[in-house]
Amino acid sequence: MEKTELREMLRRRLDDVSAANVAAASKVIVDRLINEIVWQDINRLCLYRPVVNWHEIDLSLLVKWLHSHYPEISCTILPQAKDAVLPNDPFDVILIPLLGYDASCSRLGRGSGWYDRFLANQPQAIKIGVAFAIQLVDIVPVEPHDIKLDKVITEEAVYSEHD
Hints:
The chain is an alpha/beta fold. It has 4 helices and 8 strands. The chain is globular and about 45 Å long.
């Protein structure tokens, strides 16, 4: 399936996700992130502000947890605009919203290429996608500019590029 077709199919899947399901999955995923990342080794975290209409995973509980447990970790929240300036600061961990993913941690975004350009400038960062289990597809078509993730975390599983 082409990326355009995959995006349309995944948007339809996400349209059926309720706000209650977003909240429940977000809590489970935040708990998984808390346990998956060695926070003592992290100085700079980059994450996103979810777009509610896109049914993205909400990481606000993670930010609250970090402020109370690791206040020294710098948290940068990316702007929602796809024409936003790419951050130049080096990050230790980057959390990325996904439209789709496969078990080998290839990601499918919304098509603007913003995250691919951003991630290409962050080779040192651990790149973790967060998504619902229903966003898993058999194969994400990969192009040379696409940046693979180190992990994808859902409410049902953790996928690792190294598995």
